[in-house]
Amino acid sequence: FQYLKRFDQGYNLDKFCYKAHSVEGNPAECLQRFLLHCGISDPSWSELRNFTWFLNVQLRDCEASVFCNPDFVQDTLQGF
C-alpha cells in the first residue's frame, strides 16, 4: 500500500524503504488502492490476495537486492 500510495503521488520510489509495522492510511483507502492497481475490473478476494502477495514478494526482494540499492548503483541505472 505504501509503495502504491507514493507511486500515485509521483514520488521517487528509489529511496523509499518499507518500515515493518508502520501504518499509513485506513483499510478503505488501502482496499481502494489495491482495486485500482490490481489490473482486474472486478477481482475476487483471492485475486486481490494473490496480487498483494506477489507485489509484496517483489518489493521485498527489490529492497534486499544490492542491484536495486541507489547508494550502490548510484546513477548508472537511472530510469532502468
TrEMBL record:
<dbReference type="InterPro" id="IPR031248">
    <property type="entry name" value="RNF213"/>
</dbReference>
<dbReference type="GO" id="GO:0004842">
    <property type="term" value="F:ubiquitin-protein transferase activity"/>
</dbReference>
<dbReference type="GO" id="GO:0016874">
    <property type="term" value="F:ligase activity"/>
</dbReference>
<dbReference type="GO" id="GO:0005829">
    <property type="term" value="C:cytosol"/>
</dbReference>
<dbReference type="GO" id="GO:0016887">
    <property type="term" value="F:ATP hydrolysis activity"/>
</dbReference>
<protein>
    <submittedName>
        <fullName>RN213 ligase</fullName>
    </submittedName>
</protein>
<dbReference type="GO" id="GO:2000051">
    <property type="term" value="P:negative regulation of non-canonical Wnt signaling pathway"/>
</dbReference>
<dbReference type="GO" id="GO:0005730">
    <property type="term" value="C:nucleolus"/>
</dbReference>
<dbReference type="GO" id="GO:0006511">
    <property type="term" value="P:ubiquitin-dependent protein catabolic process"/>
</dbReference>
<dbReference type="GO" id="GO:0002040">
    <property type="term" value="P:sprouting angiogenesis"/>
</dbReference>
<dbReference type="GO" id="GO:0016020">
    <property type="term" value="C:membrane"/>
</dbReference>
<keyword id="KW-0436">Ligase</keyword>
